[in-house]
């Protein structure tokens, strides 16, 4: 990626810019002068990156309900349990449906009997009509009777299929393999159609969604790989799509593989989106001096080594962009690493 290549060139330039000359022998502070190497900072080309914040949510999430009204007879899983696709998670009382099943079966048997009788009547009427012993009106009536009997049989079997489909809702099953994130009911509770029973998440892939400007959205392409973080852990995300959002903004959706369950669903996440380039001053992180929330560097002046507080920007690849407090052409001290031994 161009951003990564630019960062590597920046760091290489910082290393080449480190001069081997010693630190000044005098210091503005009392005591021994600090030791280390000097680096002359210069304006350089820096990749402009927007760190857009969002949340990493499961790619698949299901809140399972039922089409039945009835009492919950069993909830077979606890929150946090891993389930497989098709596993029964809860059961709803279906005694009313079983009673209707007997009625439906009786209706099918009756419809079949009526159809057989109508078929017999039609064959008889066809024979009589062929011998001129029955009129055309009688034959048409027999044919109509058979058609009605066949339609009644189809209706009865359709009711049986509908009843069977409804009975399937007496068992709440996992639509995919995942983790039970919430159980909304306990045995004995009454549920109505559409009421949630169990929630299941498949967190093997996470979706990071962030909101950006139209200009930023226009630079992105489906399938593009973006660096990002989930709870400050570096990840690589693949752009799933860019869609319009509210207020003339766009939503960027990017997917992160989480097959090992490294990242928790609902964690804070960021995507790093390229915004072009700008010029600025970079210093190595090794040159920074931290005192509480303050950041500073030691700058070589005619009077010696002077501690200069700076306002720092983004950190990338071991370098920090200086937003204020340091100018191009000034030389800073990179402290020597501590030596082992007495």
Keywords:
342 residues, alpha+beta, Elongation Factor Tu (Ef-tu), domain 3, OB fold (Dihydrolipoamide Acetyltransferase, E2P), Helix Hairpins, 3 domains, 4-stranded antiparallel beta sheet, 4 helices, elongated
Please specify the SSE layout and strand pairing.
Layout lengths: L1 H16 E5 L13 E5 L2 E23 L4 E6 L6 E2 L4 E5 L2 H36 L5 H33 L2 E3 L4 E6 L6 E2 L4 E17 L1 H5 L6 E6 L2 E12 L5 E8 L9 E18 L4 E3 L2 E8 L2 E13 L2 E6 L6 E5 L7
Antiparallel strand pairs: 1-2, 2-19, 3-10, 3-14, 4-6, 4-9, 5-8, 6-7, 8-10, 10-13, 11-12, 11-14, 12-13, 14-18, 15-16, 16-17, 16-19, 17-18
Distance between the termini: 46 Å
Please identify the structural class as seen in this structure: alpha+beta
Rg from Cα = 38 Å
Which bin fits the share of residues in helices?
25-40%
Number of helices: 4
CATH homologous superfamily label of the largest domain: Efflux pump adaptor protein, beta barrel domain
Give the tally of structural domains: 3
Average residue-wise pLDDT: 85
Main beta-sheet strand count, sense and barrel state: 6 strands, antiparallel, barrel
Number of strands: 19
How do the strands line up in the largest sheet? 3-10-13-12-11-14
Would you identify the regions where 5 or more consecutive residues have pLDDT less than 50?
A: 1-33
Overall geometric form: elongated
If you consult CATH, what is the topology of the largest domain?
A: Elongation Factor Tu (Ef-tu), domain 3
Name of the level-1 CATH class of the largest domain: Mainly Beta
């Amino acid at each position: 990626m161009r951003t990564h290549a630019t960062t590597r060139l920046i760091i290489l330039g910082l290393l080449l810019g480190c001069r081997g000359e010693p630190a000044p022998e005098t210091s503005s502070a009392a005591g021994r002068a600090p030791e280390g190497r000097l680096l002359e900072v210069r304006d350089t080309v820096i990749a402009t990156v927007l760190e857009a914040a969002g949340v990493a949510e499961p790619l698949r999430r299901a809140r399972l309900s039922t089409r039945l009204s009835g009492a919950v007879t069993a909830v077979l899983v606890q929150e946090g349990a891993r389930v497989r696709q098709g596993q029964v998670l809860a059961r709803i009382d279906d005694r009313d449906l079983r009673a209707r099943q007997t009625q439906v079966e009786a209706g099918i048997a009756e419809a079949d009997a009526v159809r057989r009788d109508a078929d017999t009547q039609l064959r008889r009427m066809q024979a009589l009509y062929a011998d001129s012993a029955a009129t055309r009106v009688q034959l048409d009536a027999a044919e109509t009777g058979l058609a009605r009997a066949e339609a009644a049989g189809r209706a009865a079997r359709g009711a049986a299929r509908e009843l069977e489909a409804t009975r399937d809702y007496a068992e709440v099953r996992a639509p995919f393999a995942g983790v039970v994130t919430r159980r909304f009911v306990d045995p004995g509770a009454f549920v109505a159609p559409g009421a949630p029973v169990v929630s299941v998440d498949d967190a093997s892939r996470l979706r990071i969604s962030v909101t950006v400007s139209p200009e930023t959205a226009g630079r992105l392409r489906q399938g593009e790989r973006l660096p990002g973080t989930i709870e400050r852990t570096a990840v690589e995300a693949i752009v799933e799509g860019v869609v319009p959002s509210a207020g003339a903004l766009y939503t960027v959706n990017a997917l992160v593989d989480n097959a090992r369950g490294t990242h928790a669903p609902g964690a804070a996440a960021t995507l790093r989106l390229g915004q072009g380039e700008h010029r600025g001053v970079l210093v190595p992180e090794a040159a920074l001096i931290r005192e509480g929330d303050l950041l500073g560097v030691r700058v070589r002046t005619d009077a010696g080594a002077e501690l200069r507080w700076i306002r720092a920007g983004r950190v990338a690849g071991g370098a920090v962009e200086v937003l204020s407090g340091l100018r191009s052409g000034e030389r800073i001290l990179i402290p020597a690493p501590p030596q082992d031994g007495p």
